[in-house]
Amino acid sequence: MKQRIAWITDSTAYVPDELRERHDIHIVPLDVIFEDGTYEDGFGLSPEQLYEKIDRAQTVPTTSQPSVGKFLKLYETLADTYDCAIAVHLSSRLSGTYNASLNAAGMVDFPIEVVDSQIVSYPITALILKGIALAERGVDFRAIAAALREEAAKNENYIVIGSLSQLHKGGRLSSAQFFLGNLLQIKPIFRIRGGVVELFEKVRTESKAVKRILEQLEAARKKHRITEVQILHGNVLEKALELKESITARYQDIHVLIGPLSSVLGVHGGRGTLALTWTNEPREQE
């Protein structure tokens, strides 16, 4: 008999409603904290409202991880229905969410595997989907969690920051850097490696930044099997669609998914942010 596995993640993952309902994925929200109050990520604020509030705010809103108590309450409830659970969370080096989930898991008489995705957004969802496929084949939940931890290291991603003002207000750019960056139309490209955000390159203009991340996709494709890429955007769907068109025109065998950045990620990247991410699979599997 197959194990009844509960799947849990946090709100930084991009999980479309249809996918969430079909697989009964439980999402624990982080909080976005503005001067006028606290909002649960994914609830109460549309992407348009979020960026309008960010633009008007004098200080950068902050974000907060879910409490241990919030996870504990969920796990106690799931124990009544499921045999076990697998929770996949954003990088433990970017947030305390993973540790809060892990601590709560240790407080209940219910077997739970907690997986550090080492990433954020849709790659978390991709891991969950791979886990669900393994579960449907009858693989034990502990073996599934172990496989997902190995799979997490295969992700490659590039993030073109949409708003230098957001970095400036958040203290990541000095006033001089902010002024010079705007003057020269600097677009920093970041990536997440080993669970940590690092600067990949600084380029002039957004078009050159997009060209650069497409070059990285081409380089990765020469070495790995890539069947799907994900484009995440900060309330700029039209730019995401343009990027998709560039990819599909060149690679007919790559499926492209588009989705919005969560509120928590939008707070840090700002309106206009574009991210391109994929999984590098070994070619010998072809």
UniProtKB/TrEMBL annotation:
Keyword terms of this UniProt record: Lipid-binding
Gene3D superfamilies for the chain: 3.30.1180.10, 3.40.50.10170
GO molecular-function term, one example from the UniProt record: lipid binding
Keyword Transmembrane helix set for record: no
Keyword Cell inner membrane annotated: no
Domain of life: Bacteria
Pfam family, one: DegV
PROSITE patterns from the UniProt entry: DEGV (PS51482)
PANTHER family reported in the protein's UniProt record: DEGV DOMAIN-CONTAINING PROTEIN DR_1986-RELATED, FATTY ACID-BINDING PROTEIN TM_1468
Database matches in NCBIfam families: DegV
Protein's UniProt name: DegV family protein
Species the sequence originates in: Brevibacillus thermoruber
Lineage: Bacteria, Bacillati, Bacillota, Bacilli, Bacillales
